[in-house]
């Protein structure tokens, strides 16, 4: 009777040892989840690789969800890797269809879902498609049915900071229409001042670079004066060079920016004198 107990105990110990030995060889790289985060990531990542059997939890960023749609999702390290495979899928809200309809209107879909759209007579989706797909960046094309007669037209030209178009803005522009931009006083126009409507989109508009204002208190702070101008406040366009010099009785600080500085989109590196 004692011998049978001993055999049983040895069998249990061997089974336990083999199970432990089998688990010791399993490791998983720390999970890198696109659009997702691991719970207490900073705590666990330094101990990567993760041993077999370890359970971690992950969540998804805004506008993304796991396949189970749970907020925190458990994954376990196995011989085949993390199970289930951690994924964060894009969430696409489907609004009503302009000039058409769909049974998906008002519903939410996940990445990979395909939605059928029926356009009203005389309208169609872009490229005469009948479906749109929820992808990582959102819907493959806008859920909007358009008339062939409106294809290629553009809406109002894009607005820019510190500038505007030289003509009255219209609600719609025909293909190959052009508009011209201008900047406010003391702002420098960078890029093409004329943009064109092509394939329903405007070409890139220009930008208006900030001018540099040199007030008297800044000059006083750095113990400098303007080399060629006597007024206490000036405006310079972006790209213009400005020259300074030390006030009488002061010397340029070692390592200070040079006396000749360039205005770059509203910024100047001022030299300093002591």
Written account of the structure:
There is one protein chain. With 274 residues, this protein is mostly beta strands. It folds into four domains: 27-87, Complement Module, domain 1, CATH 2.10.70.10; 90-139, Complement Module, domain 1 (Ribbon), CATH 2.10.70; 163-207, Complement Module, domain 1 (Ribbon), CATH 2.10.70; 212-268, Complement Module, domain 1. The chain is 12% helix and 31% strand. The chain has helices spanning 2-24, 41-44, 216-222; strands at 27-28, 36-38, 50-51, 55-60, 64-65, 73-78, 81-83, 89-93, 100-101, 108-110, 114-116, 118-119, 131-135, 138-139, 163-165, 178-183, 188-190, 194-198, 201-202, 207-209, 212-214, 224-226, 234-236, 241-246, 260-262. The strands form nine sheets. The chain has a four-stranded antiparallel sheet, with no helix packed on it. The protein has a four-stranded antiparallel sheet with strand order 15-16-18-19, with no helix packed on it. The chain has a three-stranded antiparallel sheet with strand order 5-8-10, with no helix packed on it. The protein is flat and about 75 Å long. Keywords: Disulfide bond, Glycoprotein, Repeat, Secreted, Signal, Sushi. Disulfide bonds join 154-197. Residues 90-147, 152-210 form the Sushi domain.
Provide tags for this entry:
single chain, mainly beta, Complement Module, domain 1, 4 domains, four-stranded antiparallel beta sheet, 3 helices, 25 strands
């Amino acid at each position: 009777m004692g011998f049978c107990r001993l055999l049983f105990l040895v069998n249990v110990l061997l089974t336990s040892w083999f199970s432990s030995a089998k688990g010791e060889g399993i490791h998983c790289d720390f999970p890198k989840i696109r659009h997702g985060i691991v719970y207490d990531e900073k705590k666990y990542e330094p101990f990567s690789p993760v041993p077999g059997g370890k359970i971690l939890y992950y969540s998804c960023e805004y506008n993304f969800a796991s396949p189970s749609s749970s907020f925190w999702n458990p994954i376990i390290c196995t011989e085949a890797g993390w199970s289930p495979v951690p994924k964060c899928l894009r969430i696409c809200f489907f609004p009503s269809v302009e000039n058409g309809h769909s049974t998906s209107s008002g519903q939410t879909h996940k990445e990979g879902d395909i939605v059928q759209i029926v356009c009203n007579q005389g309208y169609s989706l872009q490229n005469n498609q009948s479906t749109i797909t929820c992808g990582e960046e959102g819907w493959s094309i806008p859920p909007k049915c358009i008339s062939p007669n409106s294809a290629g037209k553009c809406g109002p030209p894009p607005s820019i900071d510190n500038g505007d178009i030289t003509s009255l803005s219209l609600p719609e522009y025909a293909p190959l229409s052009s508009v011209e931009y201008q900047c406010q006083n003391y702002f420098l126009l960078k890029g093409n001042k004329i943009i064109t409507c092509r394939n329903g989109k405007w070409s890139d508009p220009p930008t208006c670079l900030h001018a540099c204002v040199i007030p008297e208190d800044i000059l006083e702070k750095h113990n400098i004066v303007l080399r060629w101008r006597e007024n206490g406040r000036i405006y310079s366009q972006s790209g213009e060079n400005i020259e300074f010099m030390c006030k009488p009785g002061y010397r340029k600080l070692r390592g200070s920016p040079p006396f000749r500085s360039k205005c770059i989109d509203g910024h100047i590196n001022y030299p300093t004198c002591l």
